[in-house]
Amino acid sequence: MPVGLFRVCLLVITAIVNHPLFFPKENGTIPESTEEIMQKMKQREESLRLEQLRLEQEIADQEATQKALEKAAVVVEESKEEKVRWDMWTALSMVIFLLIELWRQDFQEGNWQDIGGEEDEMAVLGKAFRGVAFPNKAVLASFYEKRILGTTGDMARMREMVEGFADDLLEALRSVCNRDADMEVEDCMGVGSMYENWRVRKPFVCDLIVPFAPPEPYCFRCQTWCSGDSFPPDEQGYGTIKVCRADEDTAGCICDKTKLGEDMLCLLHSQVSSTRPSSEMEDLLCFKNTQYLDADQVMKWFQIAVTKAWSRISHKYEFDLSFSLLDSPGALKIKFKSGKSIAFNLTPVVQYENSDVYFISHFPRSSLAADIPSSTHWFLTFAVYERRFIQLVSKTLPANACHVSCLQILSFLHGKQCSLTGPSGLTNYHLKTVLLHLLQARPSQDWAPEKLEARLQDMLKFLEKCLHEKKLYHFFIGNGNVPAELGFPIIFQRAEPLNLFRPFVLRRDIYRKMVDTFHEMLRNMSALINEYTVHIPLAHTNGIRKEPL
Questions:
Q1: Distance from C-alpha of 436 to C-alpha of 132, rounded to nearest angstrom
Q2: How confident is the model at residue 242 (pLDDT cuts 50, 70, 90)?
Q3: Which DSSP state fits 144?
Q4: CA distances (Å), 231 to each of 93, 250, 397, in order?
Q5: What PANTHER family does the record point to (predicted)?
Q6: How far is CA 112 from the centre of its chain?
Q7: Which residues does 179 contact at the CB level (< 8 Å), separation at least 6?
Q8: Distance CA 47, CA 52 (A)
Q9: Contact yes or no for 162/208 (Cβ under 8 A)
Q10: pLDDT of residue 398
Q11: 360: helix, strand or coil
């Protein structure tokens, strides 16, 4: 009982003590604590949400970065593969280019032993010309004997007469010139068809070149398009001639090639020695305000000197002398009282170093230098070496070889055709160049006299091929197979080949005229030859055969 009562009392006391009314202040904080907790929980939830968004953004950025890296890796891999493929094509292209270049050089260096060996490898005429009537051996022999062979004696007599008079005229020219101020004139040399014995068309004209040099203490310094400095394509085959004092050495100094400032001075060449009065250079036949030899000034000087020389010796001769062309320095004509006349060209030239290559101021009849870049550009002529090459090769050919006969017949046909249809871009120099190439390519026995017909056909085929390709290379320039006996300068052998047909590439009207003239010549060949051929019995000729060219 007491124990139960005690328990009841303890329970009552506990209830009284824990009643909220006894402790109002302490129990009043409970609602505030709950509201603060809720607010904190909301703040925590918001921060967690923001953190989640941040993490999601970082994950998205990392995924984008990863994708970009993977894409970049793919691009790099593809570029590597593309580069490998490009390197392979580049290397293959270089190999093909080198093979083509090697083949081109071998072809241009005269590696043409098969030319004419097989007719399939020669140029084939167009369908309209495959049935061209070609004279046989008997007709060609009769034509050559009647029309061409008889002119040889006339050429020899004319050469002797012109050379004797030219020597006398040049000796008088030296006497009227001032040895201390005027150019020094050397002996003349004969070049061209009259001295290579293949000219057939009248009137006969002798071509003589006269080397000249400046007075002391001056000298000529020649520069060609293949000497290292860049020349435009239209100036290939030309060069310039600088008039310098002999004691000047400009080879190792750039003051002459580079514009120095006004406040700069060359330590090797003083201003006094590098600049000369304009009148002094003009007296040396230079272009105005330059040191370069002017072809027009040379022409005027030479014409005046020749006029003075003739006035000194004219009393010795019973003929008159005059200039036949005013735009050529020495196109002269001798007029006899009987009415006959003889024309010849006396052209001043400048020797290139110690060789027989010459700078020529003007070409008679303007056959090779129609468009000279300027009067300070001089064309190079290799006429002396061409004559020597023909003489050298002739010694190895059979007796009475047909090489000169081929050129004579072709030159005659071309001249006759031009008289009918007018001149064209094709010249006798082109025909001679064709012969020079074939002389080097074919063995000696192929030029026997009985093979005249075959060799004439070879020349026509070769020329037709060159016209079709618009390529006829100069025989000496770029030809590494020139005989060493000629002593030909190595600088021209190593130069790029010079295409004589290059001017016709852009001038289509002249090219078309040249091709038409060639085809017309083929059509009229038999008629032109038969016109100058005596009657040959049918048993000997069996008519005129038609052979495809």
A1: 25
A2: very high
A3: I
A4: 28, 20, 40
A5: CELL FATE DETERMINING PROTEIN MAB21-RELATED (PTHR10656), INOSITOL 1,4,5-TRISPHOSPHATE RECEPTOR-INTERACTING PROTEIN (PTHR10656:SF8)
A6: 21
A7: 215
A8: 8
A9: yes
A10: 94
A11: strand
CA distance 28 to 23: 9
Q: Which tokens is 496 given? A: 């790029």
Task: Report pLDDT digits (tens) over 366-378.
Answer: 444 446 668 899 9
Strand partners, 347: 209
Q: Which residue has the higher pLDDT, 535 or 481?
A: 481
Q: How far apart are CA 67 and CA 255, in angstroms?
A: 63
Residues contacting residue 346 through CB under 8 Å, at least 6 positions apart: 166, 169, 188, 208, 210, 306, 329, 330, 332
d(CA 382, CA 390): 13
Q: Report the predicted TM-score, pTM, of the whole model to 2 decimal places.
A: 0.71
Looking at residue 286, the DSSP 8-state letter turns out to be B
Among 150-164, 224-238, 447-461, where is mean pLDDT lowest? 224-238
Measured CA to CA in angstroms, residue 425 lies from 15, 360, 431, 467 at distances of 140, 21, 12, 11
pLDDT of residue 27: 46
Question: Pairing relation of β-strands 341-351 and 205-213?
Answer: parallel
The two structure tokens encoding residue 37: 């907790």
H or E segment and range at residue 345: strand 341-351
Query: Could you say which architecture CATH assigns to the domain 121-248+281-534?
Result: 2-Layer Sandwich (3.30)
Neighbouring-strand partners of residue 380: 359
Average pLDDT value for residue range 88-104: 71
CB 478 within 8 A of CB 375: no
DSSP 164-206: HHHHHHHHHHHHHS-TTTSPEE---EEESTTTTT---SSSPEE
> How many other β-carbons are positioned within 10 Å of the β-carbon of residue 71?
10
Q: Return d(Cα 176, Cα 464) in angstroms, integer.
A: 51
Q: Please give the residue that has the higher pLDDT: either 472 or 540.
A: 472
Q: Report how far residue 429's alpha carbon sits from residue 62's, in angstroms, rounded to the nearest whole number.
A: 81
Averaged pLDDT score across all residues of the chain: 79
Q: How far is CA 449 from CA 137, 144, 194, 454, in A?
A: 10, 12, 22, 10
User: In this predicted structure, what is the pLDDT of residue 71?
Assistant: 80
Read off the amino acid at residue 23: F
For 71-93, the DSSP string reads: HHHHHHHHHHHHHHHHHHHHHHH
Tell me what pLDDT residue 428 has.
Answer: 92
Is the bond into 214 cis (omega within 30 degrees of 0)?
no
DSSP conformational letter for 234: G
> Of the candidates 110, 101, 123, which has an alpha carbon nearest to the alpha carbon of residue 470?
123
Distances (CA, A) of 315 to 55, 145, 163, 318, 466: 120, 41, 19, 8, 52
Give the residue extent of every domain in the chain: 121-248+281-534
Which residues have C-beta within 8 Å of that of residue 316, sequence separation ≥ 6?
168
What are 207's strand-pairing partners? 191, 345
CB-CB contact of 78 with 70 (8 Å): no
Radius of gyration over every alpha carbon of the chain, rounded to an integer in angstroms: 47
